[in-house]
Amino acid sequence: MANRTMLQFDYEDALGHTVTALLGKRDGPAGWISIAVVIGERALLLQVDPDTDEISVGLEDAPNSKDGWVSVPGLDYAIGSALGWCWIGRNYLGYLDMLTLSFSGLDPQVCFICEAASLNIRRIGPAA
Predict the structure, then answer these.
(1) Can you give the pTM of this predicted structure?
(2) Section 12-18 average pLDDT
(3) Which of 13, 27, 88, 112 has its CA 20 to 30 A from that of 48?
(4) Could you give the CA distance from residue 101 to residue 106 in angstroms, rounded to a whole number?
(5) For residue 113, which of 31, 45, 44 has the smallest C-alpha distance?
């Protein structure tokens, strides 16, 4: 197994910043190839590595909506929230396939899962 890391930065640099937008670039109707959790002038940029089908996450300049980025439906509730904790999911083969985020707290709320070279989104929460 190669020495890989999902986060390409110190997460403390993003923790607690206010989410101002959630933008994505589509990979056809099935999923996303990139998702940006915008925090002011910067963004957590989630991208699929086409060679390994893993997620990489960087803290980069916020994307420009004129470059094909669109709002990610279903995540509007996070706008205005503080970016909370993150969890990294590695499968049994060692591939980095999932990033989980919380907003305004410690409870995990959304999973970004890499499936077949696309990012898919799963909202999670406590059992009813």
Answers:
(1) 0.90
(2) 96
(3) 13
(4) 9
(5) 31
Cα 14–Cα 53–Cα 101 angle in degrees, nearest 5: 30
Cα–Cα distances in angstroms (integers) from residue 65 to residues 49, 56, 70, 72, in the given order: 22, 21, 6, 12
Rounded Cα gap, residues 100 and 119, in angstroms: 12
Confirm if 9 and 61 have CB atoms less than 8 A apart: no
| Residue 114: exposure state from Cβ atoms within 10 A (0-12, 13-18, ≥19) | buried
- Long-range Cβ contacts of 112-115 (<8 Å, 24+ apart): 112/35, 112/46, 112/55, 113/89, 114/48, 114/53, 114/54, 114/55, 115/31, 115/53
Cβ proximity of 109 and 115 under 8 Å: no
Task: Tell whether the torsion through CA atoms of 13, 11, 127 and 124 is positive or negative.
Answer: positive
Strand duo 70-71 + 21-27: pairing: antiparallel
Q: Compute the distance between CA of residue 91 and CA of residue 3 in angstroms, rounded to an integer.
A: 14
